[in-house]
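for the writeup, i need someone to sanity check this before i put it in the appendix. the sequnce is what the collaborator sent (i think, or maybe the updated version? ugh). structure was predicted straight from it, no edits. if anything looks off just tell me and ill rerun, i have time this weekend
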Amino acid sequence: MRTQLKLTRDGDAFIARLAPSQASAMYEALSYLRERGSGDAGLALLVGAGREAVDALLERLAGPHRESRDYRLAAEELHMVYSALTAAPTMFLVRDGVFAEEPFHIRLGFYRENFDVLAHALVQAAAEA
């Protein structure tokens, strides 16, 4: 997975040039949390937005992802993505807080490190924009 990300300011939003793997990881994290059935309050706690906002962003991030492309994202959408990337791994904690890497990889198609690096890159890119 590409570990760098560039955000460019566009008014009150950002233009993010996402590699296919980055867009896919964002989609998988959001869709996994959306499908968990935590209810509206649980989803809002996890990603800071309700189902309608998550569904709208999922629709825009949906694949297939074959080449890099630009996405216009509001700050609130960047927050949703960041929160999803950091919250999804916590759903795979088992006894005594041990992370279950294999089920995570099977379900999401990525390693936890991929989500961590992408979340970190979002914060760095936002700070530089």
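Residues 56 and 111 are 25 Å apart (CA to CA). The chain has a mean pLDDT of 94.
thx in advance!!
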